[in-house]
Specification:
The chain is of the alpha+beta class. The chain has six helices and ten strands. Strands 1-4-5-7-8-10 form a six-stranded mixed sheet, sandwiched between helices. The longest helix has 16 residues.
């Protein structure tokens, strides 16, 4: 995968089997979390509670290898433009826009996981009256928190001022909302939205 400036991603050509395995695991650390959100969104849709979908990643395919017609493989692709946030939709007449991030860290959430263009997008949505937040999954702790944008933005400003490069878990516990796992939906983040925002 290549970026809009034409540069190739910095992936070493020669890696050991162990490095390959660890790289795959690292890359998939947020997949289970996103799968659970997708299942929750499907539940919300089926129950006519909300319409929320994952945004597709905008990519431009450049080269495809066709060893067989039914086995096409994308060999080269570029991000067409910087993506914004992971999910958006509508709930009780309100526009919802949020980012979902997972971390293995047990004590803090590293802000390097968030990009400046994402924060700019969230700020614009917030200024237009949308409900904006970040779902943070501490996967090693099995804990998920909703952090409202207006709370997150203070930590982001601190990050930009080189004061701290992460949000401590204790800060998230104090200013965010814990979302307990449930059966249906698996991650009932709209209950947390309801408790924080007037919807």
């Amino acid at each position: 995968m290549n970026y809009p400036n034409g540069k190739k991603s910095k992936t070493p050509d020669l890696v050991t089997n162990n490095e390959k395995n660890s790289k795959i695991e690292y890359g998939k650390r947020g997949m289970k979390f996103e799968d659970e959100i997708d299942l929750s969104n499907r539940y919300y849709l089926q129950q006519d509670i909300a319409i929320i979908h994952k945004k597709p990643t905008p990519i431009q395919i450049v080269h495809v290898d066709y060893p067989k017609r039914a086995k096409a493989v994308i060999k080269e692709a570029y991000f067409r433009r910087a993506s914004t946030t992971d999910y958006n939709g509508i709930y009780k007449g309100k526009y919802i826009d949020f980012e979902a991030k997972a971390t293995q860290n047990k004590t803090s959430f590293p802000l390097i996981n968030i990009h400046d263009h994402q924060v700019k997008h969230m700020q614009q949505v917030y200024q237009h009256g949308g409900i904006v937040f970040i779902l943070i999954c501490f996967s090693s702790l099995d804990e998920i928190y909703l952090l409202p944008f207006e709370v997150f933005f203070n930590y982001w400003q601190r990050y930009l001022n080189n004061e701290r490069k992460s949000i401590q878990l204790k800060e998230i516990k104090k200013n965010g909302i814990l979302i307990p796992y449930t059966f249906r939906p698996r991650i009932d983040y709209l209950k947390a939205v309801q408790s924080f925002y007037t919807v």
